[in-house]
Amino acid sequence: MSLLKILRHAEWWEYKLPPLLSIAYATLIINDEPVFNYAPHILLILLSLVVGAAYVSIINDITDIDDDLAAGKTNRMAAVAPQKRWIFPALALLIGLLFLIFFYGQDRLSSLFYLIPWISFSLYSFRPIRLKNRGFLGVLADASGSHIFTSLLMVSSVSYISGHPVIYPWLLLVAVWALCYGLRGILWHQFHDRDNDIRSGIETFATKRSPQSFKTAELLIFGVELIVTLGMLVLVNKTIVYLAAIAYFILVLMRLRRLRLFPLVIIEPKRPYQILMLDFMQVFFPVALLVYAAITQPKGWIVLLIHLALFPFKTIQVLKDYKRALLGQSGL
């Protein structure tokens, strides 16, 4: 079994990392700093988060082996000899500790933001605590580890290395956005797996309530997310970012009318769907920020090209959807 399959990189590389990078790009642009000058630092933050994501993927598989077998689901770590399974998370912990000591070092706020996701996901996965099976605490732990504190880390670390104080209105907007975005992500996952979890006797937040009863709550979460996202765009205050938002919502309408992809907030409709705001944060927002840097900053175009090379597939899919919608190809 390849290392990439063990790390489940396809499940988080293009889905979770570009939104985090967009927070770093936006923080630099708000502070009128050239993105290229701090690209090596951002890359090291990215590497430190990849180590954390690898740790999370591995311990999640290890601690889910029995539950996955009961549900008839494939578990990558089940094929690894029991005495070898813990080598992977132990190595990730060691590398993460080195990042904490030697990279984040004297930046205490960033050190705290980097440490919390490791704790959150450990509590989420490991028994006897295993917050995954403890209702909303599990949902909050996942959102905290995946999005909230990793997003705050981007703000604090980039601010620290560029010599700027943290802009607390920006930090607050990012925190609320990441909370809503993270809640939607884990709740979608839990409701998507709800039937399998019920069959295997796994208790999660989603197994204890019907999808229909959560409709009002999902709209409230999404409404708050939209408001704070608008606040983030206003703080960045660049024309190209507003144009990117308009281009995204045009795509949403084109997908709905021409491709028959129904907008999804959390609960899946019984028809093909598109998850609202994912493509904006994964493609439109980071790319728009880097196009701005490419136009207005020295060597900003280099960062744009590197970003597109690292995360090509979602961007390509967006372009394909525009083409399909314009040609009237439903793809169904």
Q: What is the residue-mean pLDDT, rounded to a whole number?
A: 91
Strand element count: 2
- Give the overall shape: globular
> Which consecutive residue ranges, at least 5 long each, have pLDDT under 50?
none
Largest sheet: 2 strands, parallel
Considering DSSP H and I runs of 4 or more, what fraction of the residues is helical?
Answer: over 70%
CA radius of gyration: 20 Å
How are strands sequenced across the largest beta sheet? Answer: 1-2
The string of secondary-structure elements, in order, is HHHHHHHHHHHHEEHHH
The percentage of residues in β strands lies in under 5%
Straight-line N-to-C gap: 33 Å
Instruction: Specify the structural class.
Output: mainly alpha
Structure description:
With 332 residues, the protein is mostly helical. The protein is 72% helix and 2% strand. The protein has 15 helices and two strands. It has helices at residues 3-7, 13-30, 39-63, 65-71, 82-85, 87-104, 108-125, 136-161, 168-192, 194-199, 215-236, 239-258, 278-296, 300-310, 312-327; strands at residues 262-264, 273-275. A two-stranded parallel ribbon has the order 1-2. Helix 12 packs across helix 15. The longest helix has 26 residues, at 136-161. The two termini are 33 Å apart. The model has no long low-confidence stretch (mean pLDDT 91).
